[in-house]
Amino acid sequence: MTLSSIYADFGAHEASGVSPAYERLASAVSRDDELLALLGRLPLAKRQPNLLFGVVRLLGGPVEDPGAFRDHVLANWPAIEAEIRVRATQTNEAGRCAVLLPVLAALPQPLALLEVGASAGLCLYPDRYAYRYGDLVLGAGEPVLECAVTGVTPPDRLPEVVWRAGLDLNPLDVTDAADVAWLDALIWPEHTHRRVRLRVAAAVAAADPPLLVRGDLVDDLPALAARAPAGATLVVFHTSVLYQVPAPRRQAFADVVRGLPGHWIANEAPEVLPYDALPEPTGGALHNVLALDGTPLAWTRSHGQAIDWFG
Fold it and tell me: Where are the beta strands (DSSP E) in 75-143?
């Protein structure tokens, strides 16, 4: 896949109908030889649209108008490039807990949660958030995570979590303003509700910070999993993380996690973890596949806003 087609595909599928600003930017970048040449000098993992757009936002650049964006990037490329090289896309969307909840609530309780690619660990608090599935409201307080559900009855209880830990190459600290600013910059421009949700979820996590360990998802997972308390169901999970991991390493991770006690929940794009057969998703928007122990169960939207159960 060429760099041009990566940006064109991002605009046409990921950003379409979700972020008009990023749809415009991605389309413009895909046709801009000068910008593509600059991006082409970066390591492969650093060329992705979300990373470029997030860094420009973090540094105060314009992302609404493609022309102004282009001028800003060309004029400030050394600073932008330096930031891109030390950053990674670590979107920590608490809303994804809404699509994990039907699986988490159905597992033997209590749970010991271990998130791979945890970022700041906001998805480690599914028991502390409130949810709205259509007319059903579950839990109390803020944030309230809204999710459209088809094909399955929403859960009627919150999970009981007795241990929570995260593994990440670069854990972020919700009590650090600079780390929260990066999480904010990764939220797409029009998504004011997600920005508000980030702040509220970060306050929940900061009141009882999770155990976050800097480490590799293959080499360091068994040791962290061994720290889970006896008598709790270990649940290793990840959402929109493995696309950043080379394919051979993904397979090594899958082999390791299958060898652990407990359960494995994956919520990733369909090409990231291949499954034998999947029904067609409804609509043209980008979807992830929610799977339990390697069995696909549902299509989900990337920020947790919808779940379409087929399992």
Answer: 111-116, 130-133, 136-138
Q: Determine how many CB atoms are found less than 10 A away from the CB of residue 230.
A: 5
Q: Dihedrals φ, ψ of 228, to 5°? A: -65, 145
Strand runs (DSSP E) across 193-249, as ranges? 211-214, 233-239
Beta-bridged to residue 250, according to DSSP, are none
Question: pLDDT of 64-94, one tens digit each?
Answer: 999 999 999 999 999 999 999 999 998 899 9
Task: Based on the fold, state whether residues 99 and 76 are members of the same structural domain.
Answer: no
Bond before 270 cis per omega within 30 degrees: no
Total domain count for the chain?
2
pLDDT for the residue numbered 274: 87
Same domain for 81 and 167?
no
Each residue's pLDDT tens digit, 97-130 = 999 999 999 999 999 999 999 999 999 999 999 9
271-300 burial, b if ≥16 CB within 10 A, otherwise e? ebbeeeeeeebeeebbbbbbbbeeebbbbb
CATH of residue 127's domain is 3.40.50
Q: Residue 54 sits in which domain range?
A: 3-86
Distance between CA atoms of residues 242 and 236, nearest Å: 13
Taking Cα atoms as reference points, which of 237, 241, 254 lies closest to residue 302?
A: 241
From 86, 109, 139, the end of a domain falls on 86
Instruction: State if pTM tops 0.70.
Output: yes
Residues 79 and 109 in one domain: no
Q: Which of 86, 113, 145 is the last residue of a domain?
A: 86
> What are the C-alpha distances in Å from 242 to residues 53, 66, 247, 251?
20, 30, 9, 10
The neighbour count for residue 204, using CB atoms within 10 Å, is 17
Domain identity same for 53 and 35:
yes
